[in-house]
Amino acid sequence: MQLSAEQQFALAQMSIPLWVRRNEEAPRSVSADPARVELTDIDVTKPWAVVTGRSLTTAELRLLRAMLSSIDISFDDVAIVDKQPAEVLSLFAVNHTIGLILGRQVAEPLDLQADTASGCQRLHNGMRVLVGQDLQQLFAKPEQKAEMWQMLLQLQRLKAR
Q: What is the reported pTM?
């Protein structure tokens, strides 16, 4: 596929290299049983929690990995929360973990409060979170990737604090 100069510039700005073989290894999800998450199996010491509300496809995992890599977040430092987000997120260290919620419909039941000082939102336990687009939406409407990129830059700024 031929890329325009504008597309190549955009990829360079996001630090996404061209023609690199991608590792398809999926991260360990926190849901071993589709009905119920075993809370003892969750590594709550990870500095990043990505809340999806559902299992991700291989293509979605690849996109998520590329997005996080573009802002220097290692996938090894990420816990994927795809079931029971309110219960699971309450277990993470509030001052150590930053959450990324993918999808407004996933965020709605979490009762988030605005935090104007940090430019993000907070859960009831005080954990900082940002709400981004659902990955399926990004595939369906690529024009929303610019909005997602701005949210990733904001996530990167939260990391620096």
A: 0.75
